[in-house]
Amino acid sequence: MTTILERGCWQLDDSITAVHHHSNDPRKDLLLRRGPDGSAQVFGGAEAAARATRTAVEDRAIEFVTADRVPGPLGELARSDVGRRLLLQGGLAAVATMMASAAHPRMAFAADPTSTRGTVVCLYLRGGIDGMTFLPPIGDPNYYATRTKLSVPASKAVPLTAMFGLHPAAASLAQVYSAGNLALIPSTGFIDPTRSHFEKQALMECAGDPAVLRSGWLGRHLLTTGGDSGSMRAFTLGNFTAASLTTSFPTLSAQTLSSFSLGAFTSSRAQFGQLLDSLWGASGGAAEALGLLTLRSLAQFEPVANGTYAPSNGAVYPGGRLGQQFKEVAHAIKAGLPLEVASIDLDGWDHHVGIGEAGSTTDPFGVMAKDLADTLTAFWKDLGTTYGAKTTVITMSEFGRTFKENGSGGLDHGYGNLMMVMGHSVKGGVYGPWPGLDSASLSDGDLTIAVDYRDVLSELVATRMNNAASLGTVFPNYTPKYLGMFA
Amino acid sequence: MLTMTKTQALPQAGTLPAVATRPRRRLPITVTGTSPLTPDYGTLTSSLAWHLARRIGIAGTASLADEISAAGTDVWLEKQFNPASIDDSYCDGLIAQYQPMVNMTLSEMASFYLPYSFSGVPRANTSPMGAAALLLRGLWTKRHLSHAMELFWLDHFSVPFINLSKVLTAASPQIVRRLRPLAMTTFAEILTTTYALPAIHLYLDNVQNVAGGVNENLARETFELFTVGIDNFTETDVQQLAILLTGQAVGLGRYTIPESLTLTDSAHVFTPSVTIRGRSYPNATHDQVLTSMSRLLADLALDPLTARFVCTKLARRFVADQPPAWLVDSMVSAYLANGSGIVPVLRAMFTSTAFAESVGAKWRRPDELHLSLIKAHKPAFAWPNITDPQAVKDYVGLQRTRQWLTEAGMPFRGWTPPDGFPDTAAYWMSSGPLVKWVNHVDLIWLNVEWYPASDAGWTWSGSWAQALGVTGSMSYTTAADRLIERLTGYTAAPTLVRTEVRAALNGGTAPSSPDAPIGTAATVDLAVRTVLTSPLFFLR
Asked: Of B34, B35, B37, which to mutate for an interface test with A (greatest number of A Cβ within 10 Å)?
C-alpha cells in the first residue's frame, strides 16, 4: 500500500499561505489533490487516508461487495459503510469480528502489534520557555555578566553538573537526574531565524518545509508504521489535535480522558452510539472520519474515562491540569492500551514579563517551572521501572528567549533552547556541546543552536519508536547525528 | 416541506446589486453545493436566505432565514450593510439593563459599582461581563452582519477577556464599546482606534516598552497578525517599530484605563527617525512621534499586503476555508478602491457566485452551534423578569453558556494566543468537542433545562414540536423533512438522515408506511436529537 507521501500527490494550496502561518499549527489546512489533468480537489485531512491509501485491489473489493455480488447477511453487512471500512482495514474476517460486537461494531479492532513500540509523551511548552532560567548555566560567567537581574544565583540553583543547575522551583527533577533517567540538551532548536511563535511552532512540529509537507513528524511516523490500522495509537490531551500529529487520518483529542465519555445523561448508550454511527458513517469525507474516530476512541478509552486510578510508588501529581493529564496517560499505559504517542500542550511560557526575582519560587516562571518539574517527576515515579522502561517523555519549545533582559522584568523571543528527554531507558546526562555565551558564540545576540533538534527526535524515532527505516520520511532531507541518549 | 424555486440570477462577482427603494418580498433563491466535508451526502440544497442566515448569524436559525426571505435577500443585505438603518433598540435595551458596564467609562463604572468598589475603582472583574454582553447581542441583535464583523475584529485583534491575569478589569468592555460602532467602517479607522485603546498594549506588553527596556511583543504582532502578515517584514522593522512604540502606554494598570493613550516623553526612545518597511518616520519630538504613529497605521492599513491579508481572512470566515483566489482578488480591489472600506469588500463577497456556491463548505464553531440551538428551541422567548439573585448571576452573566463553550474548546473571548480563534473545519472537527456537543444535545433532549427554572421568564412552556411547527397529522416523511429544514436549512435531505429522522419519529424503528401520518407529536423530541447530532447541523 502506498502512502500519501510516497505518491507525492498531495500538495499545498498556497493561495493563502500567509494567513495559515498565523495559526498555531498547520493542521487547519486542507489538502489539495491534483489529478493528471491538473484539476484540483480539496479534501479535509481526515479524509486523506481513505482516498490516498486505497489500492487498486481494495477498490475492486469495494466494487465487488457494493455491486451486490456477496449474498446473505454478511454481504449486506459488507455493503454497509461499516463493512466497507472494515474491508479496507483487514478483509471479511474483520466483518465477522464486527458482527460479534453488536453495540459498537466499529470498535471491535484487534490489538495492533505495533503497540510493542512503547509510548512517547511529547510535551510542547508553548510560548518559548527560557531554558537558561529553567536550567541555568551556573558555571558560565557570561551568564551572570549579562543577566544581571534575571539570572538564577548559583547559590539558589540545584546543581547537577559544574556548568548546570536546576531552577530551585524545579528541584524535584534532580532525583530523576540523579537516577540517570534525565537527558538535558541545553543548546538545541530548529535552525531557522524566525522569531514568530506561530511560524516556529509550525516549522518544528512539521519538521520539514511546511510549504511542501502538510503533516507533522509524529504523524509521518504513524503513517509509516501502520497508519490508521488497528487500535488507537495516538492522542492529544487538549481540545484539538497537535500539529506534530497531523497526518492523513485524525487522531483523538480530548482535554482530559476522564471527560471523554458518551451519553452521561442517556439511558441507552449503545443505541445512541449506533445512531451516531449511522448518521456520521454515511456522510463520507472528514465528517465520516471524525465520527468513526470518535466512536472508536470512546470504546477504547472507556476504562480510563470511567475507572479509578491510584498512582504507584508514592507518586503525587500536582493538582493542576498538567498533573491530571500525565496521570491519565499513566493510567492508559497501565491499563494496557496500545498507546504509542501522547501529545500534551502546556502554554504560558511567553515571558516578555514575569520572570520574577531570580531564583524565587513564587514568581510566575517559578510557579510554572514547579508544576512542570513536579508533574514529570511524579510520572517518572508512578511508572516505575516496568512501565517506565517502555515510556519516554520529551519536551520541546519553539525558541529560547533573548539573552539580554528587556527591561520589563522579562525576555523577548530568542533562539537556542533546552530540550529534555526522560525515561528509564534514557542514559541521563547533559548532551551536546555548550557553545558558551561570549559575544562571539552568540547568534544575533542570543544563545545559539549547537544541536539540531531533529538529532534528538531522530534518535527517539529510531531507537524508542522502532522506525529507523522511515527516518527519511519522518525528517525529510535531513541526516541525523545521534547523541547516544538511550540505553 | 418548503418548496424552493430559483427565481433570479445570482449576482456576479464585482457587480453591485441595485438597492431597492422599498422592501420587496421575493421568493427565496435556491442554492446548491456538495460539502467537501460530507461528500457522500451528495448535493445539498438550501435557500439563499438560509445560506445567509447560517453564515452571517452567530445564531443561524429558521427565524432569521424567514426574516431574510421576507425582506428579500438583496434588500436585507443592503440594510445590513448600513446597520444604523436597523432599529436595534430592543437588544441595546437588554444590554443597557443587564450588562450596562459595556457602555461605561471607567469612572462611570466606579460610581455604578459604588457598593462594590474600593477607593473609587470597581472591584468586580468586568471582563466576563464584556463577553456576556457579546453573547446577549448574538442572541437578540437585528444588526446581524455588524455583529458578525464585531466578532471578526475582536478575533483579528484578539485580546483574551477572561482567564488571563494581565488583561485588566475595564479594558475588555472598553474595546467592545469602542470597536462595535466601527465594525462596518474602514480598516484604517479600526486599526487606529485599536492602537489608541489600552487593551492591546496591556496584552502585548507595550506597557513595559520604555526607554531602557525595549519590548518587541506588540511591534512584531503589528506586522505578523494585524497587518501585512508573515514574510512581509524584517527583524529590523520589528526593532524600529518597537522604538516608535516606546512610552505610548506608560502607567496603564488594572484600574487605569483611559479612553485614549498619551505619549510619555520620558519613557520614549527619541531618535532622528525610524525606518519601517522602507519608509522613514520622524521620531525626534513628541509631536513627530504622534504624527508618525498615525501615518504608520494609515500606511499599514492601506498597504496592498494588508488588504490581501484581511480580505483572505474575511473570505475564510464567510465563504470557504480555502476561498478561491479570484474572489480574494475582487475583495482586495474593493478594499483598495475604497480606502480600506469594509462594506464594499463585504458586498463584493456576499454577492459573488463563490459565496452562493459555497453551500455547506464551512463547519460551525461551538459558539454558533450553541446559540443556534438556544434560538431554535426558544424562537420567541423574551427577556425574563429576573427576581432571583442566583438567576441574575446565571442568566445575565450567561455563565452556563460560557462554561459550556469553554469545555467545548472555545472559551468565549478567552483564546489565549494573540492570533484569534481558528476558522477552518480541520481545526474544529475534533473528537473532544464532538463528544461535548452530543452530550449537550442529549441533556437538552431529556428536557434538562439549560437555564434553571427558577424564573418563569426563561422557561419556555412550548415544545420542540410547537417551535418547529410539526404536528401529528403530518406524514413521517413530511415531518422529517420539515424538522431537517427548520433546524438546518437544508431541503431534499440526504437519504440516510431522512431515514433516521423518520425512524426516530416512529420511536426508533423505521415506519412501515413513511407516508402515513405519525399520529403523535410526542416523538418529535427524539427526532430533533437525531437532527442536532447529525453532521448536517454542523454544516454552516
From this structure: B37
Q: Do A259 and B432 touch (CB under 8 A)?
A: yes
Distance CA B56, CA B540 (A): 10
Coil, strand or helix: which one is A11?
Answer: strand
Say whether A18 and B214 touch across the interface (CB within 8 A).
no
Q: Which of A29, A193, A297 sits opposite B431 (nearest CB)?
A: A297
Grid coordinates belonging to A166: 536546576
Q: How far apart are alpha carbons A471 and A5 in whole angstroms?
A: 13
The answer to whether A254 contacts B431, with C-beta atoms less than 8 Å apart, is yes
Please, which pLDDT band fits residue B241 given cuts at 50, 70 and 90? very high
Threshold 0.90, pTM exceeds: no
Q: What is the pLDDT of residue A99?
A: 25
Q: Are B523 and B510 a contacting pair, CB within 8 Å? A: no
Residue B300 near residue B228, CB atoms below 8 Å: yes
Asked whether the beta carbons of residue B322 and residue A28 sit closer than 8 angstroms, the reply is no
Do residues A87 and A65 lie in contact, with contact meaning Cβ atoms separated by under 8 Å? yes
Of A251, A210, A208, the residue nearest A227 (C-alpha):
A251
Interface of B with A in 69-98 (CB under 8 A): none
Please return the burial class of B125, using the count of CB atoms within 10 Å of its CB with bins 0-12, 13-18 and 19+: middle
- Statement: residue A264 has pLDDT above 70: no
Q: By CA distance, what is A351's nearest residue in B?
A: B205
Neighbours of A154 (CB within 10 A): 15
d(CA B149, CA B143): 10
Residues of A in contact with B35 (CB under 8 A): 285
Q: In chain B, which residues have their Cβ closer than 8 Å to the Cβ of A252? A: 431-432
List all residues of chain A from 391 to 410 with a beta carbon under 8 Å from chain B. 405-410
Pairing relation of β-strands A165-166 and A158-159? antiparallel
> What single-letter amino acid sits at B15?
T
Is residue B207 within 8 Å of B201, Cβ to Cβ? yes
Q: How far apart are CA B294 and CA B284, in angstroms?
A: 15
